[in-house]
């Protein structure tokens, strides 16, 4: 999702359906740091209006191409790709390209499309195209296949597809609302492109997607998008959309100040203080929406393959200081690995230095003076990976370096250009990632499966816990709300007992805007641009 998206680092209900949604709601609602002098010094006053309708966004993550198997997850965030279901702030998705999603029984779901949905190439999205899309994603997307347990996608009406699954899938709505699973695209047009051996750049002309905006050009520096003619949900709110790829955070803010961008994404918290009193750029923050800066631990690399050492590490972190002091109060204290406002959440994260010291002693790591602890002649070292696209990851990493030194850790903070690629390897200790156990759609069940199940391709932490795997598998089949709560609490207890994962802070959403876009609402699930986005 993944910014890191849920998955922001990377590569979806009526009568009976409403009853299911209600049953699911409880679990679903559920770079160096920027220098203070990095901004343009002058205050030139409010940025001049760019004219009616257009929007320019500066972001740190580059969109490489339009290949639906590699990069379609960016599309829902910027309005050129749609999903079957739409993520919502309460964690219960609503229909998007679908008119309805109806649960017939535990292994049967009826998907009904809206009328008049067309791909950019003019082809209508009908039931046959939808069934083909779902089967294609099931074959080509391992994460989706593991989540949906598809048996068959049968066309049962002009706009209706009936899915049958090999086991109960109570979280179907969230699965269909996840940007990593089933982006809506024309499978036939994509197959023709592949069979012809055309370069990926030619997908700009294939008209694959159905969103309110169509991408007209894409370079390493920017993307240019225009409103989709005849868009099914009315006239889009922008006359033009430009996405600029600007890796450095200060440069993104300078673009806003200079009138070269309207909104800058992925802001470090230091910008709030830097922009106080200015009228050429405004720091806009929203409430936490499930996102965190997660501390992901390589469970397969010594000494962090020892659960006692992992527990000691997590007990040594000063979570209050990270949220209130290090990030200037622009995050809430993380007391839970799931960091959500839901009744299934257990507060099992806490700072306890005495416990941390005792656990390290028990694990054989001996303290000697003010230097690092040692065991069998080896120092207790910890390398923390951060990445420039999320500047506060480095801020947190540097703070942890100071916090853990007194406990006997010798800490190194290393910034890497691609945090996903770095974690795919084995040569790392921990990483600070803009990620959450909650999925892209704020589902704890999907998030657990994606991040911590031993068989998941996104289990970059190499977690291998038979106890947790069993709970996750049971959660994926359980419709009963009370039992799901019990299972979610059991999962959290296992995560704490085995020291598998931690949320360093519960981060708030934040952007920098010009005066025209100062009231920009912070979106759920990084949906920065929708058909309704307008000044």
UniProtKB/TrEMBL annotation:
Residues 1-32 form the signal peptide. Residues 93-436 form the Solute-binding protein family domain. Pfam families: SBP_bac_5. The keyword Transport applies. Keywords: Signal, Transport. InterPro entries: Peptide/Ni-bd (IPR030678), SBP_5 (IPR039424), SBP_5_dom (IPR000914). Transmembrane segments: none annotated. Belongs to the bacterial solute-binding protein 5 family. This is ABC transporter substrate-binding protein.
């Amino acid at each position: 999702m993944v910014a890191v998206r849920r998955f922001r680092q990377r590569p979806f209900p009526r009568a009976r359906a409403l009853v299911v949604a209600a049953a699911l709601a409880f679990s679903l609602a559920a770079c160096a740091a920027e220098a203070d002098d990095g901004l343009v010094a002058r205050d030139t006053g409010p940025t001049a209006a760019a004219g009616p309708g257009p929007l320019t966004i500066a972001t740190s993550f580059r969109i490489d191409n339009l290949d639906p198997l590699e990069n379609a997850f960016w599309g829902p965030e910027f309005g050129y790709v749609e999903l079957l279901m739409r993520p919502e702030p309460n964690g219960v998705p609503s229909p998007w390209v679908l008119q309805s999603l109806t649960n017939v029984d535990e292994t049967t779901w009826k998907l009904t499309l809206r009328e008049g949905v067309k791909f950019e190439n003019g082809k209508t999205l009908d039931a046959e195209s939808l069934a083909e899309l779902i089967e294609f994603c099931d074959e080509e997307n391992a994460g989706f296949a593991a989540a949906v347990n598809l048996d068959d996608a049968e066309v049962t009406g002009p706009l209706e597809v009936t899915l049958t699954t090999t086991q109960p899938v109570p979280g179907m709505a969230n699965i269909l609302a996840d940007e990593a699973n089933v982006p809506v695209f024309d499978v036939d047009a994509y197959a023709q492109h592949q069979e012809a051996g055309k370069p990926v750049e030619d997908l700009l002309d294939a008209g694959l997607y159905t969103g309110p905006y169509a991408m007209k050009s894409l370079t390493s520096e920017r993307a240019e998008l225009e409103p989709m003619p005849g868009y099914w949900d009315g006239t889009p709110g922008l006359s033009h959309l430009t996405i600029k790829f600007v890796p450095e955070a200060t440069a993104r803010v300078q673009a806003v100040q200079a009138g070269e961008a309207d909104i800058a994404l992925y802001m470090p918290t230091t910008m709030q203080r830097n922009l106080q009193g200015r009228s050429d750029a405004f720091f806009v923050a929203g409430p936490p929406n499930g996102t965190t800066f997660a501390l992901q631990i390589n469970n397969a690399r010594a000494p962090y393959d020892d659960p006692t050492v992992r527990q000691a590490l997590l007990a040594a972190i000063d979570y209050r200081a990270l949220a209130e002091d290090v990030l200037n109060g622009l995050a809430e204290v993380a007391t839970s690995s799931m960091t959500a406002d839901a009744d299934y959440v257990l507060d099992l994260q806490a700072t306890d230095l005495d416990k941390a010291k005792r656990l390290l002693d028990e694990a054989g790591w001996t303290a000697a003076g003010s230097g690092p602890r040692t065991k069998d002649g080896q120092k207790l070292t910890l390398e923390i990976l951060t990445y420039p696209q999320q500047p506060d990851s480095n801020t947190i990493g540097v703070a942890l370096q100071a916090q853990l030194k007194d406990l006997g850790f010798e800490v190194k903070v290393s910034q890497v250009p691609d945090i996903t690629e770095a974690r795919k390897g084995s040569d790392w200790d921990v990483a600070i990632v803009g990620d959450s156990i909650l999925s892209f759609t704020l589902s704890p069940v999907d998030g657990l499966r994606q991040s911590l199940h031993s068989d998941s391709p996104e289990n970059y932490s190499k977690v291998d816990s038979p106890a947790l795997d069993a709970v996750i598998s049971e959660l994926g089949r359980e419709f009963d709300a009370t039992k799901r709560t019990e299972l979610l609490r059991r999962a959290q207890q296992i995560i704490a007992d085995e020291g598998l994962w931690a949320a360093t802070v519960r981060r708030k959403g934040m952007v920098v805007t010009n005066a025209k876009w100062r009231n920009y609402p912070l979106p759920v699930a990084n949906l920065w641009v929708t058909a309704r986005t307008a000044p």
